[in-house]
Design goal:
The radius of gyration is 29 Å and the shape is globular. 50% of the residues lie in helices and 12% in strands. Strands 2-1-3-4 form a 4-stranded parallel sheet, sandwiched between helices. Strands 9-11-12-13 form a 4-stranded antiparallel sheet. Strands 10-14-15 form a 3-stranded mixed sheet, with helices on one face. It has 18 helices and 15 strands. It is an alpha/beta fold. The two termini are 27 Å apart.
């Protein structure tokens, strides 16, 4: 019996059946101001998106982005403007981007935004990464592209960190100089920094000398500095007094356990620095002892107080024989038993622990993506080679016209610089290390091996190994909320962050939840994980 057309408007999911929506928006972005000013990459993105729209018969009604916005979070101005527009305008059926990493590099968060758009009948389409949105495998692959966009971010960050570590080992300070120093070559590479001692540095030198020679209290030193125009809390002085940078050394968490002779001018002598510490040690004790490095306190400096952001230290209450973690901010009083915080950390690690049954899922998922990635890279390289040849031809043509007197110096310089920057960008893309893919495969295998038994692996490890595991999973540390008695993780290693998401999908698949099980392609589900039947 045919349904009366007057009742069709009451059916469920009507908005998702509007498959003939042909209006689209384009979102383009680059990561840096320099790229935006050059505009070559933005032009390339826009050109490919418009070409795709023309081929597919889509009507581009609005352009968004066209500037530099970091994709490390999704609070970008143009990005939010685009999302607001497509959610408000019901006729939009597509959001076109050059690649998924132009849309977002936040991994699961980017995938969730795409899912929300899909629920509104809007498809997110990467014009350079072929994904069939009508097939579960295609939807699944899109999610993996989002995950690997974040992973790429972390690889770039690791590459940047490698460079900084090398500079640190050479004695150069690649960061903002500490109080008392001014870098007069700001914006240059670390080996070109020129650190000079400023006026505050001269006052700080006096503070060191007062503590070393006269053994004045921190309160008295702060009063003297205040009289000379520097209003500083007494407790703040202790942070300066423990920093060996002021006597010529470089220390950093990026080079743990090492002290490097710095290239910067020392504020005080090593002898003065040691004398200050001899005087400070006289005031030790107070009922508990701060532990610098013991197996019982691996979370020291790794945990931060959610209330004030201060890193936790650790101490031993000798009378009880018990260890505690302590927030050093005066008045914060968010201390907590070592046993409690360790137990909660083990519970946190359990969220990133996998059952051996789903190992095939992870391996298939990542290896399939890697093979797709190789294919995409090869296609991109061919396109880049063609574009590079064209740019070189244009550059030669401009040079020839300048030599022949057809254009003046100003016009020649303008187009020469433009083409050279574009050539440099493309050459940089082509020169990316090809062994990155093999490194990804190794990282996947290592992640899976660790995730099989993560909590016990951490418990059985020594102090250094525990810290390596902690920093691998949570590169920015974790925050402890004393009121809620729980942890918050600001950033999780991408490979591990995919684990809870995948486990939820598999659980939904086993329970027969069609809303989630449709996201998992059948080829990736191992035997023994059949969905529930009714």
């Amino acid at each position: 019996m045919q349904t009366d057309n007057r009742f069709k408007r009451f059916s469920k999911g009507t908005e998702l059946l509007q498959l003939n929506k042909t209006e689209a928006v384009i979102y383009t972005r680059v990561s840096t101001k320099e790229q935006a000013e050059n505009n070559a990459s933005l032009e390339t993105q826009l050109k490919h998106c418009k070409k795709y729209a023309e081929e597919k018969g889509l009507d581009v009604v609005e352009l968004f982005g066209g500037t530099y916005e970091s994709a490390k979070d999704d609070e970008r101005k143009e990005f939010q403007k685009m999302l607001s527009y497509v959610k408000r305008k019901k006729s939009i059926g597509y959001v076109l981007v050059y690649s998924y990493d132009r849309f977002s590099r936040t991994g699961p968060s980017g995938a969730f935004i795409s899912y929300e758009l899909k629920q509104r009948g809007i498809k997110l389409v990467s014009v350079t990464q072929s994904v069939d949105h009508n097939d579960p495998s295609g939807n699944f692959m899109e999610g993996i592209y989002h995950l690997f966009s974040e992973f790429d971010n972390q690889l770039r960050r690791d590459k940047s960190m490698t460079g900084m570590i090398e500079k640190l080992k050479q004695g150069y300070w690649p960061f903002v100089p500490p109080t008392g120093y001014t870098n007069i070559n700001q914006g240059k590479t670390a080996d070109q920094h020129n650190m000079i001692i400023n006026e505050r540095g001269k006052l700080l030198k006096k503070a060191f000398e007062w503590k070393a020679n006269d053994d004045l209290s921190l309160v008295e030193i702060a009063k003297r500095l205040n009289a000379r125009g520097w209003n500083i809390p007494p407790k703040r002085l202790s942070h300066f007094f423990v920093n060996p940078f002021y006597c010529g050394f470089i220390v950093s968490k990026m080079i743990p356990g090492q002290m490097i002779e710095g290239k910067h001018p020392p504020l005080i002598s090593k002898k003065t620095f040691l004398k200050v510490h001899q005087n400070l040690e006289k005031f030790g004790g107070g009922g508990y002892k701060i532990e610098q490095e013991v197996d019982e306190l691996p979370l020291k400096q790794f945990i931060k107080c959610e209330c004030c952001g201060t890193s936790y230290t650790g101490y031993l209450v000798k009378k009880k024989g018990l260890y505690y973690y302590k927030c050093n901010m005066k008045g914060c009083a968010n201390n907590r038993s070592q046993k409690v915080l360790h137990l909660k950390f083990e519970e946190l690690l359990c969220q990133f622990t996998i059952d051996r049954k789903i190992v095939p899922v992870l391996e298939k998922m990542f290896l399939h993506l890697l093979s797709q990635r190789i294919k995409v890279n090869e296609e991109d390289q061919k396109a880049f080679q063609v574009e590079l040849a064209e740019l070189r031809r244009k550059l030669e043509n401009v040079e020839e016209r300048f030599v022949n007197g057809e254009i003046d110096q100003i016009l020649y310089s303008k187009y020469r610089d433009k083409y050279r920057v574009s050539i440099h960008q493309i050459e940089s893309e082509l020169s990316k290390s090809e062994n990155q893919l093999s490194n990804l495969e190794k990282a996947v295998k290592r992640c899976i091996e660790m995730a099989l038994n993560l909590p016990s692996l951490w418990v059985k490890s020594n102090f250094r190994s525990k810290q390596r595991i902690q920093n691998l999973l949570f590169p920015e540390g974790i925050y402890y909320n004393r009121k809620n008695d729980n942890y918050r993780t600001p950033r999780v290693n991408l490979l591990f962050s995919a684990i809870p998401y995948l486990i939820r999908l598999l659980e939904a698949y086993k329970n027969g939840d069609s809303a989630f099980s449709a996201e998992i392609p059948t080829w990736v589900v191992p035997a023994g994980l059949e969905p529930a039947t009714t």
